[in-house]
Amino acid sequence: MFPGLPTASLTLTHLFSSPFHFSVPCYQRPYSWTTVEAGQLLQDLLAAAGIGGVTDAAEPDYFLGTILLLDGSGGDLPAARDREPRMFEIIDGQQRLVTLAVLAAVLRDLGTERWRWGARNRLDELVAADAGALRQFGARFRIEVSAGEQAFLENHIQARGACLGNVDPEPLSEAEDRLLMVRDHFVSELSALDESDRRRLTDYLCDQCHFVVVLTRDIDRAHRLFTVLNERGRSLQRNDILKAEVLKGIPEQRRAGAIEKWDNAARLLGARFETFFSHVFAVYGRGDTKIIAGVRRTISEAGGPEAFLNNIVAPLSQAYDTVLRAGDVSLNIDPEVRRYLVYLGRLPEGDWAPAAMLVMQQYSEDRGRAKLLLKEIDRLAHLLRVLCVGSGKRVRRMSEVVQIIRSRAPVRPGEGPFALSRDEIRNIGYHLRSMYRRDAQVCKQLLLRLNDELTRSMTVLDPKDYSVEHVLPQRPGATSEWRRWFADAEEREMCTESLGNLVAVTQKQNDRARNQEFHRKREIYRGGVDDPPVLAITRDAVEASVWRADEIRAREAKLFGLIRDTWGVEVAGMQGVGTRSDVA
User: Fold this and answer.
1) Taking a C-beta distance cutoff of 8 angstroms, is the pair 144, 22 a contact?
2) Which residue has the higher pLDDT, 555 or 115?
3) Dihedral angle over CA of 337, 340, 342, 346, nearest 10
């Protein structure tokens, strides 16, 4: 690096400890990562730490990228012995640093009682500011975001135990909503890990994950560096390295044809081309997280680079394109195949995609077999999410599915890798009775799927366009009609969390409905000229004259019946709920 621009490679522990403290300047955009970006970071960290994958081998280190900091006082990067608190403005790297702070807070709060509430531990030190920073800057936490979101970040994430608390259903800003969704996603994913794995992830995160830190001393230079880092040039992608690896083994006279095949696949998949190779390795890999080394081995086992291109890259890229574009009516695929691929496409694809694209490659001419396998993949993928199983366990489960597909062995519905244990079925029923509280995103995906089952047709819905609304509000007003209809607090809580009490509406309708009385909610759900049509999953609430325990129980039974008919899982409804209040 050129003189005058201090740089250092720092582990997360070094960066999130004295003397470093961080603020997000007011001109920066608010927090913008969603569960897609944050979830991918968590999956990458778990894979690098050797947690939840096919192998337990950890990478020696994990590079979190370059961050750019501004110190207007003109100082250098702190030396290892420096302890005097200093405040740095984050010019580039806000999303990663804030997300890692959320991750550290969730790991801290999921610890055992002794771990969480004992002496300050290393996780809390990543989150909390030093005592000197509190005196000098008034900073209570290591990272402080813009004033609009700081109170939310402190109260619902950074404070000890806050990650496991509920959030009042008041309107949130977009940044606050994203922070909450990322927090809850981390809680869901990490809760599925054993305590030992969470501790292992903590150690890996603190000691093996590092940044390259670049420090600048004036805002103009910071702006120029930010522009260079984010807008100029094209970084070398992993698939560029893979391309060179494949082509170097092909004789010169046949290289042009090989390049054309490679480039055709790259054009077909565009930005998904690198993800495609992760899926290829999930199909043909040996459990090693090193993609490039794994592809080298796959090339060898395929019979060389040309066989790898002809027999793996070309057909699987076509299959993956079909999986990704299943909703495109111009694709000539069986309607049932399309239906299952569209439903799977509403879920993050990290676990199920390798199995689905392998089905489309191996059984493109055998529609019956393709439909059977995709139906089973759809069932397993959705039920594993209802179970709140972590991504690592889902990947392992789907790797068993991939192996049986590759073997071309006979498959019967609900057997082999598609079978669910008695405990899993019991837990599915348990989770369904409070699905929104357990995972709001999974709950929304489930409602949209049941919407199609109600209409017996496939609707091309984008989950981002909808949100989950509690008809009986989570916190009804003290003098509201809801309190008269549900006078018993225990009954009211059970009914509130029931699947029978949840509908799917737009975020705008959700914001308007909130704690309104039922007659007002019905009008909001019906929508206006600018709102999309009422979904079938919401119609029960629109058409009901009252919304009491009997109505919620009946609707829950109907939805549980749909789940039984769709995925073959028998779920018992609410117990002891349904006594109609005598108060009108």
Assistant:
1) yes
2) 555
3) -160
Calculate the average pLDDT of the chain.
86
Residues 6 or more apart from 118 whose CB is under 8 A from it?
Answer: none
| All residues at 6 or more sequence positions from 90 whose CB lies less than 8 Å from its CB, including other chains | 22, 23, 24, 25, 28, 67, 68, 69, 70, 97, 143
Please name the helix (run of DSSP H) or strand (run of DSSP E) that holds residue 468, with its range, or none.
strand 467-470
In the chain, how many H helices and how many E strands? 29, 8
pTM, to two decimals:
0.71
Q: Residue 217: pLDDT band by 50, 70, 90 thresholds?
A: confident
Work out the pLDDT band at 580, boundaries 50, 70, 90: very low
- For residue 88, the SS3 value is strand
Q: Which residue has the higher pLDDT, 29 or 9?
A: 9
* C-alpha to C-alpha distance for 558 and 573, rounded to whole angstroms: 10
Q: Quote the CA–CA distance of 331 and 329 in Å, as a whole number.
A: 5
CA 571 to chain centre: 26
pLDDT for the residue 129: 87
Q: Residues near 487 by Cβ (< 8 Å), separated by ≥ 6?
A: 581, 583
Average pLDDT over residues 506-528: 92
What is the Cα–Cα distance from 106 to 160, expressed in whole angstroms?
A: 9
User: Nearest Cα to 436, choosing from 191, 192, 181?
Assistant: 181
Q: What was the pLDDT predicted at 256?
A: 87
Burial class (CB in 10 A: 0-12, 13-18, 19+), 101: buried
Residues 319/268, Cβ–Cβ less than 8 Å = no
Q: Both tokens of residue 277?
A: 């190779």
Would you give the DSSP letter of residue 57? P
Q: Does residue 53 carry a pLDDT above 70?
A: no
| Residue 537 near residue 447, CB atoms below 8 Å | yes
Q: How far apart are CA 499 and CA 557, in angstroms?
A: 9
The residue whose two tokens read 């009516």 is 329
Task: Pick the more confident residue, 217 or 253.
Answer: 253
**Sheet with 7-11: strands ordered across:** 7-11, 209-216, 62-70, 86-92, 20-23, 143-144
- Please state the separation of Cα 344 from the chain's center in Å: 15
* Residue-wise pLDDT tens digits, 265-279: 999 998 888 889 888
CA angle 292, 293, 296 (to 5 degrees): 90
Q: What is the tens place of the pLDDT at every residue in 68-90?
A: 888 867 677 887 677 788 888 88
CA distance 533 to 30: 32
The phi, psi pair for 143, rounded to 5°, reads -120, 135
Q: Positive or negative, the Cα torsion across 134, 136, 138, 144?
A: negative
